[in-house]
Amino acid sequence: MSFLLVVSGASRGFGQAVAVAFARSFFDSVHSSSRHSNDDNDDETRTATDDVLPQHQVRIILTGRDEFGLRETKERIIAPILSNGDDNDDETPTSASSSTDISIHPMDLSDMDTLDQHMDELIGAAKPLDRYERIVIINNAGSLGPLGKVANIKSLQEFSQAIQLNVTSSLWFTTRWVKELLTLSEQDVGLTDNNPKQAHVTPCTIVNISSLCAIEPFPTMSTYCAGKAARDMFHQSLAKEEEECHNGALKVLNYAPGAMDTDMTVKLREEDQLDTGLKEYYRKSHDKGELIHPNTSASKLVRLVLSGDFTTGTHVDYWDLPDI
Ligand SMILES: NC(=O)c1ccc[n+]([C@@H]2O[C@H](COP(=O)([O-])OP(=O)(O)OC[C@H]3O[C@@H](n4cnc5c(N)ncnc54)[C@H](OP(=O)(O)O)[C@@H]3O)[C@@H](O)[C@H]2O)c1
């Protein structure tokens, strides 16, 4: 199997946890199918992608502003892969660690002047897309934006910066990937009779990292709630547009990860402008250890996406899913 994973906001918090969790799961698939093919030593098991990529490749593309954080995420992905390879005498390092290719792309996704250029860079790092047998794109990057009552939002600049990152940039991130993924599917079905790839349409999942704030209003979080609602509706509309696309090969998910222990909720606990009831909720949840660990929510997301057990376009909350 060969996989592509792209994660925005992968330098810390939930994005980092998601990148590590998907990488782990993809690596386990690669590891077990590599072991089977080594056992079988059977050339007929090779797929149409093998002439282009080494067999069983995992390609991971991580983006965010903080290069140091992205490097840390890369280290967290690589460390267990290397130690796993070392632990297994029957596995050569080349079939494990060297077939996992991780690139980091520090960039500010809220800068509209450079966004398309940055998207070209990310898509260029992933291409050609017809090499993969499974593609997962995680649209995770986000910020709280201005907190406090609407009447107290200080400036158009602060307001529009938040909308640019949480709405314009996020929606454009998905748009650019969709354009590429649909071209890929069209190419695949247009191939000739004797091309073995003709029947193969790559399963692709685009995940918008959503929130309860997308579907429920919270005082003093209006800009954040509006951004999350816009993202959800955009991805729902996309799902409707493409639900018939090549027998559902492209699926879209709005995943609300629950209230997690990340920098975002540190800010919510400390922010003077936040509604006192909300602030108390985040403080108490933290003090009682009730905030969800990002790894726990990431594991649920990985299981849901890879099972495909959801309706395209749907909003799924962490609390809707069974514990692992
Ligand atoms: N934490 C929660 O309780 C919670 C609940 C529901 C939903 N969510 C959602 O989950 C996602 C991740 O949140 P989190 O809790 O992990 O937040 P976080 O710890 O603040 O991380 C946010 C991520 O977004 C990236 N980011 C922010 N501004 C960016 C920019 N201008 N350009 C590129 N990347 C940028 C950050 O990377 P850099 O700083 O390196 O740029 C970081 O990796 C968000 O979409 C959030 O809305 C979180």
Brief description of this entry?
With 324 residues, the protein is an alpha/beta fold.
SSE arrangement:
Blueprint lengths: L2 E6 L4 H28 L17 E7 L2 H21 L5 H4 L3 E7 L8 H12 L7 E6 L16 H34 L14 E6 L12 H20 L8 E7 L6 H8 L5 H12 L6 H14 L7 E3 L7
Parallel strand pairs: 1-2, 1-4, 2-3, 4-5, 5-6, 6-7
Helix pairs in contact: 1-2, 1-9, 5-6, 7-8
The chain binds NADP nicotinamide-adenine-dinucleotide phosphate.
NADP nicotinamide-adenine-dinucleotide phosphate binds next to helix 1 and helix 7.
Give keywords.
324 residues, alpha/beta, seven-stranded parallel β-sheet, 13% strand, globular, binds NADP nicotinamide-adenine-dinucleotide phosphate
The level of helicity is 40-55%
Strand-residue proportion: 5-15%
Bound molecules: NADP nicotinamide-adenine-dinucleotide phosphate
Shape: globular
SSE order: EHEHHEHEHEHEHHHE
Number of strands: 7
Radius of gyration: 20 Å
How far apart the termini lie comes to 25 Å
Largest sheet, spatial ordering of strands: 3-2-1-4-5-6-7
Described by strand count, sense and barrel closure, the largest sheet is: 7 strands, parallel
Count of separate DSSP helical elements: 9
Identify low-pLDDT runs: 41-53, 86-95
Q: Structural class of the secondary structure composition? A: alpha/beta
